[in-house]
Specification:
The chain is built from six helices and no strands. This is CdiI immunity protein domain-containing protein.
């Protein structure tokens, strides 16, 4: 039902998320940079739909698609950070994707210009 969200769980939010940033918030901030515009737009649509679900449904889907628990303090890596709830985590992910420059412009932006 949520292939883009699942792809995020298999990448920067997956088991090796600590390789993608020093903190969980950095991982979230950097997530759009590794995807093309159609993926970003589809992710925004999926997350908007996903966040209409109940907290119980968000929790159930999150455990299926995420390789990490963004709501707990972890010892490794140190100072990784946490989110107060899964809804807060996914809301932040949505905000980051919605505010991506390419999504805002509605077109791909050449990074060399």
């Amino acid at each position: 039902m949520f292939p883009r969200i699942k792809n995020l769980g298999g990448g920067p939010f997956g088991e090796d998320a600590d390789l993608f940033g020093d903190t969980l918030r950095e991982v979230v901030q950097d997530a759009p940079q590794t995807h093309d515009l159609p993926f970003k737009q589809q992710t925004v649509n999926e997350l908007r739909n996903f966040l209409t679900y109940s907290d119980e449904d968000i929790e159930r889907v999150s455990w299926v698609v995420l390789g990490i628990d963004p709501t707990v303090d972890v010892e490794e890596p140190p100072n990784w950070g946490r989110f107060p709830s899964l809804r807060a985590f996914w809301s932040t992910v949505l905000h980051v994707f919605e505010n991506d420059p390419e999504v805002q412009a509605g077109r791909e932006i050449d990074p060399s210009t």
